Amino acid sequence: MAATGVTIPLIPAKASKVPDHVFSSAMLACGLSLLAVVVLIVIELVLQSKLSIHAFGLKFFKGTNWDPVAGDFGALPFIYGTIVSSLVALVIAIPLSLGVAVFITEMCPKPLRGTISFMTELLAAIPSVVYGLWAIFVLAPLLRSYVQPWLARYFGWTGLFTGPPFGVGMLAAGIVLAIMIVPIIASITREVLTAVPQQQREAVLALGATRWEMIRMGVLRNARTGIVGAIILGLGRALGETMAVTMVIGNTPQIAKSLLAPGYTMASVIANEFTEATGDLYLSALVEIGLGLFLVTIVVNILAGLLVWSVTRGLPARVRA
Amino acid sequence: MNWKRVLMDRFATGFAVLMAALVVAPLLAVFGYLLVRGVGSLNLAFFTHLPVPVGEKGGGVANAIVGSAMILGIASLIGVPWGIGAGIYLAEYGRGSFASLLRFTADVLNGVPSIVIGIVAYALVVVPQKHFSALSGGVALGIMMIPTITRATEEVLLLVPLSVREAAWGLGVARWRATLSVTLRTASAGVITAVMLAFARIAGETAPLLFTAFGNQFWNFNPNQPTAALPLQLFVYAISPFDEWHRLAWACALVLIALLVGAVTAVRLAARRGVFQGAS
Asked: B82: which chain A residues are within 8 Å (Cβ-Cβ)?
């Protein structure tokens, strides 16, 4: 994570002037306040969720009942929905993003390379809410009429695809999330693959390997730590994604085994109910879900950062941008 | 060569090509639908009129476009100087474990879900003021801009050769002046790119605006009042049960995407053609 490059000496010829001190202090303040913002986020989340933490304790994360009228709040259905929709997204996104990353770095003809990586980047630039709109009016009807009946007929025995095809639900949310995290996983995987020294490839090819064997033994094996990091980073993004999921997951706080059934995620419940929350306990319970989401994404992101960093640390700064 | 190995190679190549095609497909699908559904819904009224109540035809989102501009303006006022300042600190002054801690903090902040930032902006600005406002939305989005700009500014500043700084110092230029008018200016291409990318990232953000800017059906030019924003309006229209509103949702999405893709493409082209004379 540490940036490499030139090391700038701390004391140039004309140091120790008042304006210089003012300037460097101002810049230090900018840097320090970054730390302050993160601390402030933690403090605010804890303060605002105090009521709910006191009222429910650890039971909050085990309870399955979400009843604002009775003042009984349990977050398990939301945790379940967040985890399951993110896992569905990962299952779909991993082969897609690894495939496209390998294609761009190892196979793609030079003239096409820029175009395809640009298109992958564009996917990341589309706002969540636009994906949601597309998913409501295009993806969900498609799933309802064609994909879900087919899944239910041929894979219904697994128990994962039972029940009426609503279109909206866990599966739809997972697919939209997958489309959204593919560019993240793909771009970091590409960086990691680029970081594998060219000699590795040449050495394996010189032994008479086919291109696939070269990729498998020379490239993927060397880059696997970084690839795992990229996938976890994608997971971190999927866990916290709000709008698109809210628009297609069905927003029903239940724990259903079937992926065709509607669900609810931690981010969605905050988005939907925060402005309508009546009563301090209700609001506080929503903030506590936010606190949980914050802590989980932080841990996931740190883990991913360490893994990616362990592979790309030798590279000049530009490549990692 | 063994035919099994050749076959495996062909299969792997085919798989990678298929995956690349499948990744590009949703992009084309989204853009295709946006164009088909969006262009037909665009008209002058869309840009100049206020939203109309359910049941009436026509209407526009002029107030949301103005509101978005206001919120994004506030966010940039907060995020850009702050982010560049922190980047300058990390590149020019940051040393040792404290700087590493700050870098790490920026990465942590970058990973915080936008909805959580929204809760914090709510607690910090909306609760004390006791009403929703464009200001609180700007604060939320501004905080989201900082880490992107900070890390990218640091990287491009470190690409400026030491000799450039030394030349400035050798002329007797004060250190702060050298940093601002020599180092930062040399790296301006990269910094501008970073700012544009951060801007593109927050321009479509909806989640943190739900309970900060809140939305508004009427004109509002006061940053201290609830304000409409394009992504918010799009969300409201999309989840509504009315066909007329769905039509407007597609139009909102098209305008939003046109702005974002325009910004990203412009930056990319400019960077490639060397329009900004960078340090590298």
From this structure: 30, 33
